[in-house]
Amino acid sequence: MSKFSKKRGNTSPGISTASLPDIVFMLLFFFMVVTVMKNADMMVEVSVPEASELKKIKDKSLATYYYIGKPLPQFQEQWGTKPRLQLDDKFAELEDIPMFVQRKKDSVIEEKKDQLVASLRIDGEVTMGFVTDVKTELRKAGQLKVNYAGRERAKDLE
Amino acid sequence: MSTEINAGSMADIAFLLLIFFLVTTTINPEKGIRTKLPPWSEEEVDPTQLNTRNVYSVLVNYQNELLVRGEPMRAADLRENAREFILNPQARPDLAESPTKAIISLKNDRGTEYGTYLMVYNELKGAYNEIWEEMSQRDYQSSYDDLPISSKKKIQDTVPMVISEAEPTDVTGQGN
């Protein structure tokens, strides 16, 4: 008893909160650095297929996104239900791809121009005809590095 | 009178910002299958001119069915079958002469679903990944992903990945 009771009589010193801002700022900077702002408002429905040989995109700042899927219900009246391509915040036609590739290339420094990766976020139910047309446009525009977005496969193929 | 600025509210401000960034952060990493498209050229390379034993043709029709070297196949068997074709451990005369000569030719229809296409592509890539991983374990006793680029290149020169994609067919004539 005597060993521990000594301190009990003293008034509690209280935890100093002086370092709290420092701690919070540290967390803040961490999140500021790792944050990637949501790149676009989705206008098409994309549920990427499952796959097992996935690799992370190393440098997200070099990724450009191509969304292909059925327009969301609120856009279907104007754009129909056929799969469409979305670039940035707009529906786009195949002819817009070369301009888009060029614009993305202009936005990075010279040495990184070839390292741009086209991340194709394509819905699993889109047919290959349209996908092939997009790929052909990318090849023509010289955007050869491509990443087929997928999600981790839950169970093996049967 | 004290002239110091009261720093008491600093924590509140920082918290506010912190919560903002917490909410906007997407932690889930972007993952995908990496590939390199061939440069655009007007003329199609026709793999059928090559020695047929070295060509592993995979056809996917508009009903998402697989035809591998003329035989229907389930997607689950594709990886194992492709591996056997590339390595040809029993030196069978109908499989690839050597891994460097093996060519995988992938052809689909305009009506094939992208999900099926990616599944097939994933299996073919997986076959090569498995071979590379095995070689890496055998020669370097380490995982392929951890190898330096020079060693990776060496492995890829021994078993190069050649997946050639042909123009899709258009059986239904409306596959868009």
Features:
heterodimer; A: 158 residues; alpha/beta; six-stranded mixed beta sheet; two-stranded parallel ribbon; 5 helices; 33% helix; B: 176 residues; five-stranded mixed beta sheet; 4 helices; 6 strands; elongated
Written description of the protein model:
The complex is a heterodimer of chains A (158) and B (176). Chain A has 158 residues and is of the alpha/beta class. Chain A has a domain at 44-152. Chain A is 33% helix and 22% strand. In chain A, strands 1, 4, 5, 6, 7 and 8 form a six-stranded mixed sheet that branches. The model of chain A has no long low-confidence stretch (mean pLDDT 85). Helix content of chain B is 37%, strand content 15%. Chain B has a domain at 46-165. A five-stranded mixed sheet of chain B has the order 4-3-2-5-6, with helices on one face. The longest helix of chain B is centred in the last third of the chain and has 27 residues, at 114-140. Chain B contains four helices and six strands. Chain B is elongated. In chain B, a hairpin with a 2-residue loop joins β3 (66-68) and β4.
